[in-house]
Design brief:
Layout (H helix, E strand, L loop, with lengths): L6 E4 L2 E4 L16 H52 L3 E6 L21 E6 L13 E6 L5 E5 L13 E3 L11 E7 L8 E9 L5 E9 L1
Antiparallel strand pairs: 1-2, 3-4, 3-7, 4-5, 6-8, 8-9, 9-10
């Protein structure tokens, strides 16, 4: 006996039934114009908030990076003076070979040679002369930086645009001196507590204070 699945039996005869499947009625619809406009307005508002915040984050990161590099270089210079038992100096430079006259020259320059020069200072203090050996050069290139120096770091005494460390680890600074690192937000009158202050002491110690006012 044969069994036919999906068959109808009419008058003793088997007929194959055709089964037609239909998809359920779909209720999916598109967005209305009003909904699209509301979504667009929300995106514009979020972008207006997020873009400036991201820009400030990038600028703050640059200030953090540069200030950390300067502090690290000062500490390295002191360490080399102690290790080598000779005076070692660090100064701003715009040509990788000689000292610049201002710490402020570390900011606002686009040249690839702007940075910090560390050298054995066996001759005239603060001047690379004779056989003074360059130990390290740290490139600092950010045209948007603005650096304000105080006391011995001040540009009012251009000859002192350097720090020399003795073999004892002490610096030749006559006063506690600072470098305030800000950026071009000052130019657009956007003052705020986003700066970082590098402080160098006569003992040779350095520190960084965050959230300093730039105006």
């Amino acid at each position: 006996m044969q069994v036919c699945l999906g068959c109808d039996i009419i008058n003793g005869m088997s007929y194959i039934s055709t089964i037609v499947w239909q998809r359920p009625f779909s209720t999916t619809r598109g967005f209305t114009m009003i909904e699209l406009m509301v979504a667009l307005v929300i995106l514009v508002v979020l972008a207006a908030i997020a873009i400036p915040a991201f820009g400030n984050f990038v600028k703050n990161t640059r200030i953090y990076t540069v200030s950390s590099e300067i502090q690290t270089t000062l500490s390295y210079t002191r360490s080399e003076a102690i290790t080598r038992r000779v005076p070692v100096s660090v100064c701003p430079s715009i040509d990788e070979t000689s000292c610049s006259s201002k710490w402020e020259n570390l900011g606002g320059h686009t040249g690839a040679n702007v940075g910090l020069l560390v050298f054995i200072d066996s001759g005239t203090a603060g001047t690379r002369d004779g056989a003074d050996q360059v130990l390290k050069y740290i490139q600092i290139t950010d045209p948007n930086l603005e650096i304000t120096a105080s006391n011995d770091f001040s540009s009012s005494d251009p000859v002192k645009a350097y720090v020399q460390y003795k073999s004892s680890g002490q610096s030749d600074l006559a006063f506690t001196s600072t470098l305030l690192i800000c950026d071009d937000r000052k130019e657009s009158y956007r003052s705020g507590d986003y700066g970082r202050l590098i402080t160098a002491y006569m003992t040779g110690r350095t520190e960084i204070l965050a959230d300093q006012h730039c105006s």
